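User: My advisor, Dr. K., asked me to get a structural model of this assembly before our group meeting. I'm new to this, so sorry if the format is off. These are the inputs:
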Amino acid sequence: MANQKLTERVLATGVTFDDLIHIVITGDTTQFSGGSSYKATIGQVMDTISGSTIMVIDAGAGSTMRCGNSNSASGAYSTASGGFNNTSSGQYSTVSGGRCNTSSCYYSTVSGGYRNTSSGNYSTIGGGYFNSASTINATIGGGNQNIASGSSTTVAGGISNTSIGNSTFVGGGSQNTSSGSYSTISGGVNNTSSDYSSTVGGGSQNTVSSSYSTIGGGFNNNNSTFGSVISGGISNLTGPTGVISTLSSYTSGAGLGLADATYGPYSQTTTSGYGVGADFTFDVSGNTITGVTITNGGFGYGNGDTIFITGTTFPGGTSSNDVTLTINNVLVSTYNTISGGRENTSSGYYSTVSGGRNNTSSGYNSTVSGGYYNTSNDYYSTVSGGRNNTSSGYISTIGGGFLNTSSGQYSTISGGYSNTSSGYNSTVSGGESNTSSGYSSTISGGVLNTSLGDYAIIGGGNNNTITGSTSGILGGLNNIVVNNCSFAIGQGITTDRDNTTFVENLSIMSLQDGSGGLPSGSVYYCSTDANRLYYVP
Amino acid sequence: MAFLTDQIPATGVNLTDLFHIVDPFDLSQGNPAGSSYKACFQQVLGSITGGTSVMIVGAGVCSVERCGNNNNASGNCSTVSGGYGNTSIGNYSTISGGYNNTSICTYSTISGGYYNTNGGNNATIGGGITNFILTGSTSSTISGGLSNETIGEVNSINGGRQNTTIGTYNSIGGGCQNTTDGCSSTIGGGLLNESTDFGSTVGGGFSNTASCCYTTIGGGQGNFLNSEYSTIGGGLNNSNAPVAGRSTISGGESNSVKCSHDFIGGGCCNTTLNAYNVIGGGFNNTTTGSTSNILGGTNNIVIGGISSIVGGSGNYIYGTNSFIGGGLTNTTFCDWSTIGGGSSNSSSGFYSVIGGGNQNTTFSGCSSILGGEYNTTIGSHTSILGGSGNTAVCDCSIVLGSGIMSNRSNTTFVNNLSITISTLPTSSAGLPSGSVWRCTVDDILRIVP
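Assistant: The format is fine. Below is the predicted structure of the whole assembly, which you can bring to the meeting.
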């Protein structure tokens, strides 16, 4: 046995770390100059080769853990394969590396980083710092202090972003919150996308709070109406929506003990819905509330919502004066568009503001293309540009200028300053301080002209006035046409007959000498009669 | 027998080489210290990895496999470092953990999750459930989420549910059931959006489609882009036609761009049919002439090129270089014609102007009607100031009044004429030719010849 060759020996089975092998320590010459012979365990050899074995089974059945680094793989078939102080406690969960990461649910994953927590089933965190994916299928790619807490939500990166709603997405940036189902924020800072399929492309402090609505970018834009768009700009606003239009009932008996008067305006104490900002006045007569006026419709209300105003709001009032109002109808705003600019508001159905500043389109399908402080607030009304213009008539139009008001149905102001077009179908083309208020009346230009008569026309001039129907003033100064079908050409003329044209002086060029061939009514002169004027009868 | 230290140092040691080993717990050879055997290094390594350690060499050369959990590291240098039922088939492929994940191709990686499959070289799946990178999808990434799928190279899906990228360099941020099918196309999120051509983008929203190269849809619902370099900001059911490249719709509902370089700001049911058209907003407005504009209002139509309607309702422009300011059902038929406003006015002469009023008509070139009602110009260079029912028939005639029909050229027609006596000259002295004066002797009007 002692001289048996190693190759002739029986092959060992069940070899363990405790088994011995013959080893010569070459650095030890106590037995021989070439080294000393010792026995050694295989464990000793492995310690020499690799230090120690680092992958072990932890508390979880079938788990895999990098030992010695305070990791924990306590879930069945969980993995904590690297890093330090990582915990993989969910079944089939994984932490690949990093520090202080936790993967605590079924099939959850943290690939690396620091203090990340993947606590939803099938949730994933790629890396980063202090991220939390807490719901089923949630994903965080990386970044810092991001939260993915809706099912199938995603935060790709960035800092302090939150993706709450189902299937929401935040691409990056900082402090963005995507909370509506299928809502998206691509980037930027402090943006909020809070309703179904809403989108914020980027920018800062933008808020989309209605479904299918979009903000492309910009700063401090607020899109709160269905299917609406704010492409960019600063402090642009869609809505408000849910503005109280009519009430269906109120507590008439709440006027008991109150003196006859009009009270208010008072705002709500509470509401059954979510609206705010509404104010009302109350007409009290004979211990009864006889009327309620909506002085401010507020916003955010819904049909059927109730508003409660405590009785102590009234001077000397008690709980017996508590009033409950029921909303019958609210104005709802949808499909608004603001393409850019600053502090613009689009609140009417399908209304549009293309740019400029402080413009408001609040009428149904109304449009403001640009300019400053322009308003289009009736159905299909339009302001193209300029400043402080108001298009408030049904299908009224203002092309531009300053301080113009187009308030008549189908009325038009092309430009100028401080013009008013208030008559149905009335027109002011330009000039200053002109007023066209007659039906289909027209002022082409000039200053301080007033066209009050139906179908009247003022071509221009200064301080001309028409009150007669179907009359005209070509221009001039201080003319007044009070008759129907009369015209003034000159200065300081006041008409006194219908169907007459009034002039101061008259100069006739190319006048025919004699009546030969002239039709009836023609004026001619007779050179043989001291140039006397005649007309053909 | 020489000391071990006398032996020549071995070279080329491998796992089948033998060495002397004693099992101290085996007393079968009669020695209380244990029994002596030969052993190969493979046995030793098996002891090391099958004991308290769990990592072994898998079927692949130089592979690493977490043993005992039905994992399989069959690719050369592949790694399955944890989890259960994971399979790393590709060379240099890696699965860190999770359940039943499969990493098929070279350098492919799955960090964790459930039933994920990675078939792309250099591709990565971060985690999630049933995500799938198809074979050939080189360098693609799915970070997480549910049932996301990528087919093509260098695609990425950050998360969400049932999203699909087909093509190359495509990206989907998140959301649900979104599809990119092109090259360098992007969907941020939302639901059921499609971005299907080179460089196309859908930011979010619902059921939007950017189907041509470099198209962009910000959000909204049911918007569709079908031509290159075009943009829809949002809104509902807005679209452009295949020939409407470089066009823009900011928002609104059911707006449609049919030609290139057009713009619709918003509103509803507006349509541009020719190039370089602009509709600012409003309802049911239509531009068909090139470089024509409608800024607002409703039911307005511009057919002529380089023409504009500011607002109003039911206004039509048929000629080129024409303009209607507003009002109701006004129509210009000829080039270079203008209607300021009013209603039912019609301008049929070149360079003709109607300021306003109702049912006025210019048939002649360079004619004008400033206002009034039922006035008509027939002769060229005629003018009607206003009034009602006037007709300027002869060229260069001017009408002031009502019910007048001009019958001579170069003549001004009035119903009656009133001359301010107080200012009328009483002598011809110093007056130019044509001046009317009053003779105080016989109180007769005379003219300076």
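One thing worth pointing out at the meeting: Chain A is about 0% helix and 30% strand.

User: Perfect, thanks a lot.
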